[in-house]
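Forum: Protein Structure Q&A
Topic: Joint prediction for protein chains with partners

I've read a bunch of threads here and the consensus seems to be that you should model interacting components together rather than docking separate models afterwards. I'd like to see that in practice. Below is the full input, 540 residues plus whatever partners are listed. Could one of the regulars post the assembled result?
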Amino acid sequence: MEFTRKLREATARNNSLLCIGLDPDPERLPAGLTIAQFNREVIEATNDLVCAYKPNLAFYEAAGLEGVKSLEHTLSLIPPNIPVIGDAKRGDIGNTARMYARSLFDVFGFDAVTLSPYLGLDSIEPFMVYSTKGLFLLCRTSNPGARDFQDLEVEGHPLYEHVALKALEWNAHGNLGLVVGATHVRELARIRHLCPDMPLLIPGVGTQGGDLPEVVKSGTDRAGGNAIINSSRAILFASAGPDFAEAARRVAMITRDSINRYREAPHRSE
Amino acid sequence: MEFTRKLREATARNNSLLCIGLDPDPERLPAGLTIAQFNREVIEATNDLVCAYKPNLAFYEAAGLEGVKSLEHTLSLIPPNIPVIGDAKRGDIGNTARMYARSLFDVFGFDAVTLSPYLGLDSIEPFMVYSTKGLFLLCRTSNPGARDFQDLEVEGHPLYEHVALKALEWNAHGNLGLVVGATHVRELARIRHLCPDMPLLIPGVGTQGGDLPEVVKSGTDRAGGNAIINSSRAILFASAGPDFAEAARRVAMITRDSINRYREAPHRSE
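Posted by a regular:
Agreed with the consensus. Here's the joint model:
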């Protein structure tokens, strides 16, 4: 099924804009559990609370071949009606980008992926032709280093705004979105203003400290949707003990419900 | 052994600035050969002609688990005194970048990698602490889309120059280099001017059409070195027949020797 539709249906069914980042940091996994066992419990405990899951490939690749197998296994554990975003941040020249698209869409079968914009249009095009898939271009990221290049001023506007405008221009298949960190709500609001109808993938709530009410207010569209709000560590590692899955469910539910409360707040009716 | 020293020794031993990109495009592999069999023959035919090999991970990931195994197998076939650059173009926030560094350096054991700069310093730092490894930041790439963002003017200079200057500033361990495409020699010359002592990884000669004499003149340092000039398809697929390895050797030798001729041209003594 098309990513956009799958996302819309999961969002409605679970009444949720919450995405859980499946980033199994090996230093924080409960003792004795494999990556796939850990993910299985988290997925079973939370799949009625999320609009999407987002595994970041780095956490799997760090474990070598076994890690790649764990990722494939994890993908098989996610209910097919919940979209999965492969957080890969790939970006390479045209003929190579085709290979990454094949890996992410044909081999792993992700419904959507994240991509780096630095190499420009021909690094994105081989992904765009998969018109049923979603593509989220890094725009303004949540980390301190985002300032180094993304905030540089080009013709009176920060570089990330140029990325947002290019995404609008390139969006012939209607399958582009943007990654915008939750840690800088002013930037988030500005990007939402520039791209009123584009899906935004918003990491950085939870451990990274994004201000949830402001993020929901600034990141959602006029109907209070079209935003995928991601939390990874705060949910996965809510407890370091054997009750990690219950704790993950508890924090996921609180996060989902808080997001919904702010979606419904009076300012939405203005 | 440290990347810089390994590179210097291979460059001297093989009298070569040529790097071969081991990018086994599945559509172009000779019939009946696996990726590793193909790479084995290319490596056996060319390892006295190169200063480095550079596998691009996309071509392996596109073949799934088997592809990742092929990459590990390929790495075991490269003589240990020839440095291997993992062309990964990764770039992610700090705690995730640590995982990519672990994958590329500890799991695969690359001597050097390519990285995307878009996320800034904290996406590079987890790699920099591997002080014996080489890191090549994407600066001005060889593809048409490089224009979209890399050439945007920031304070009177294109974005890629800011990347080059940041690399100079960040280079506390002396292990940073830059990726600069061969297809735009003016930009290459400008970056060499800004970074007279930094190693440059220069893809884009061969199929992509970079002008070799100009590339060697503009990309090498005052001593005619410190440049890694990469060719992939023009060498790997020099022949589509069973003589592909001989053909690869022939083109590799011509390319290496041409580079050396231009290194020694009179303009170097100015």
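The beta strands of chain A are 18-20, 52-53, 85-90, 112-115, 134-140, 153-154, 157-158, 176-180, 200-203, 227-231.
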